[in-house]
Amino acid sequence: MTIIVWAIVGLALTAVGQPLMNSVTDSSTGDFLPKKYDSAAAIQIAEKKFDEKPDPNAVTVLVARADGAKLGPQDQKKIADTAAGLSAKRIKAEPEQFAKDFSQTPRYTVGVVAPDGTFQLLTLSLSGNANDTGLQDVYRDARDLAKTDYQAAGFRVGFTGGISSTVDNLDEEKDTEALVGALTMGLIILLNVVVFRSILAAILPLLAVALIGGVATGAVAGSAKLLDIKVDPSVPSLITVVLLGIVVDYFLFLMFRFREELRANPKMDKREAAANTAGRVGNAITCAALTIVAAFATLGIASFGQFKVLGPAIAVSVLVALLGSLTLLPALLAVTGRAMFWPARAWKKERPAGFAARLGENISARPVRYLLGSLVLLGALGAGAVGVKMSYDQHGQPTTNATRTADEISRSLPAGVSDPHTVYVQTKAGGKLDERSLTGLTGALGKVEGVGQVAKPVLNPDKSAARIDVFLAAKADTQKARDLITGPVRGTIAKNTPEGSEAHITGTAAIFADVATAVNKDLKLVFPVAAILIALILFLLLRSLLAPLVLMLAVGLGFVATLGAGTLVFQHMLDRPGVNFTLPLVLFLFVVALGTDYNILMSDRLREEMDKPGPARKAVAEAVRHTAPAIATAGLVLAGSFASLAASPATAEIGFATAVGILLSSMLLSIVLVPSIAAILGRGLWWPRRSNKGHGGGAGAPTAYGRPDADRTLVTEPQMAGGYGPAPYTGQQPYPGQQPYPGQPYQAQQPYPGQPYGQHHRPDSHG
Known about the structure:
Layout lengths: L1 H22 L14 H12 L9 E7 L7 H14 L20 E7 L6 E6 L7 H20 L2 E6 L1 H11 L1 H23 L3 H28 L7 H30 L5 H28 L7 H22 L1 H9 L18 H11 L1 H16 L7 E2 L9 H10 L10 E7 L7 H12 L4 E4 L3 E2 L5 E8 L6 H18 L4 E6 L1 H35 L3 H28 L5 E2 L2 H28 L5 H28 L8 H30 L86
Parallel strand pairs: 5-11
Antiparallel strand pairs: 1-3, 1-4, 2-3, 6-9, 6-10, 7-9, 8-9
Helix pairs in contact: 1-7, 3-4, 6-7, 6-20, 7-8, 7-10, 8-9, 8-10, 8-20, 9-10, 9-11, 9-17, 9-19, 12-13, 12-20, 12-21, 13-18, 13-21, 15-16, 16-17, 17-18, 17-19, 18-19, 18-21, 19-20, 19-21, 20-21
């Protein structure tokens, strides 16, 4: 019944979720800036005084003679007439079910002629979300229609900027994205087949991700629609990546423990085994998911709107994933049972001396050596973070028709012509503006080094505001343009604004310069608050002060080492001006939040093993033996998913750094660093929590039945029906109702159902 409910809800929300998500996304970065920033203030003036909004979809169209000759007056008339004809032709869309209908009439505006007369520029405007496939199809139809009409008139055309660049990049990387998706799915299937030798174990996690992802997308989109909130276009793809990582991870954690249950109890009913598995791993999964929720939800306190909306959206998705992990995934195990591992048979018996077992023994025997080795590696990588710089330049963008058209324009006109900036001026006390009052400002802007051209001022109808287009000599999406805007341009505007008025500038470089300021401010707030929340969750799970501090320290070292590795490769080795400005946040969210999952799973098993009687180091070895395979497999799956992003030059930096961070978190921090610290500290790791079990030695240590026993012999029941006398105590718990074999310790590891280890109080026992 649980599976059926998830299937119905998942399929239903999958059908409506993506169209609904497209309706609540906003592709204008400037809309997410607080109003106090200069570029946001300029957008407010544009909307209030000119009833217009800077259009992120605006396309610059280059029109030139097909024979390469210069344009004459007759040619310019033909270009204008053809543009007018195109502006009267409605583009009909064919939306899919539940999708928005983007049918509309394109708007063409005639622009400047190149100084050498070789081409003229037009502006094409379309309404809608540039990331919606429906609007992208409308743009393609409008583009093809314009090419046909201008070709018939003897001209060639090129398109750049706005939705043109978006569509060209998507078309250029379509095959790459398909390859990345296939590689990711193939990696997950391959690893699961190698680990479990099973078909269902390889396929079911992906089906679970699909159902849970559909519900999560619908929940996020529905919440945004209900609350009238706009989300960033990156949210859907991030939801997919996050859910793919954590759902597959949690399924792996459950399957490894499920296999362990079935191995230890060959005759156990599959539903009972699934219930026991969910009970044992459920707490760790819940805590792990809540740390991710805390990390992402903290973004809700950010000032930058994209963060403010992104955090809660991902947090909602993770909560849906948690619900699925505690209900859908155990239900799948309960239904499939031992068939989950078909056709393999070797899973029924554990290899006594596998790699994980040997690693656990080595760490428990020489913990200081492993701890120092881990710290040296993390320190070496972390040293690369010294001198890290943030870069807002776009690296690795493919060469497309849009980039070639932009390059052609920049050879005759300022590079910023295809992506202009606009200064908006408005009076403060109901005064009036005229062109003469603005000559000082326009003249001063024209003299700024790096400004290629300044257009004449355009006044609004009541002359209370004016707009002045500024064309930079540098491309708008470069650091040079941002430095120019934040320095000389804004300084000149401040000094030459007409008295009794205010002036602000907006545009790509201006917006991203303000975004950089907002992001730097937010990161200083988000990181410590999220760290405190994660620490509180760890305190509640582990009921200890020292263990959470150890985990937080490990995660912090992993974050610095990962950032250092990315800086070493991309800033120093590839000689870039810095790392992508989103990298610290991405690493924090994915490496710290997701990487903490592995530490929590290991810590939970360490505590479970240490709660049994026996030496603490033996408990560490057992925890590594049982948990390392699950963590290693999950880490490889998640790291491989992110590493596949490196196939695209535009996402290579994030793909590489995140994959390195996940590998460090899983293979080094969780499997080596944390266990080695646990072996050194012993049960002191859980201070001030006191264990109810013996410490593996010493007079007076509690025995299995809770009585001090200095000679460390197992206190057994009275001999019944020829029972045997006391057997040596070995730190292992006897299975209730059975006596140890004469002269040999009983090796069973299973607790009595419903009772914790070492607390069996049967009516007929001496305990």
